[in-house]
Amino acid sequence: MAGKKKTARGRKQDRARVAKGQHYELRYEAKKTGRSASAVKKAVKKVGNSRKRVEKRLGR
């Protein structure tokens, strides 16, 4: 896909989500909130992949 460039909007939308299938995202969120990666995964399953809702669920 030559010519496609990543826009700031695309990156911002991506940062607003937690990809529970991506181990590095789970580790990042776990470290940020002081919880375990499995707790983050459970929170994503419970409230969806919105980073704000996940952090709120984890008590951040």
Outline the structure in words.
The chain has 60 residues and is mostly helical. 62% of the residues lie in helices and 0% in strands. The model has no long low-confidence stretch (mean pLDDT 88).
**Portion of residues within helices:** 55-70%
Structural class: mainly alpha
For the sheet with most strands, the description reads:
none
Shape: elongated
Topology order in helix (H) and strand (E) letters: HHHH
Report the β-strand fraction as a percent range. Answer: under 5%
Q: Low-confidence segments, ≥5 residues, pLDDT <50? A: none
Short description:
The chain is mainly alpha-helical and 60 residues long. It is built from four helices and no strands. Helix 2 (23-33) packs across helix 3 (37-47) and helix 3 (37-47) crosses helix 4.
Topology record:
Blueprint: H1 8-15, H2 23-33, H3 37-47, H4 51-57
List keywords for this structure.
single chain; mainly alpha; 60 residues
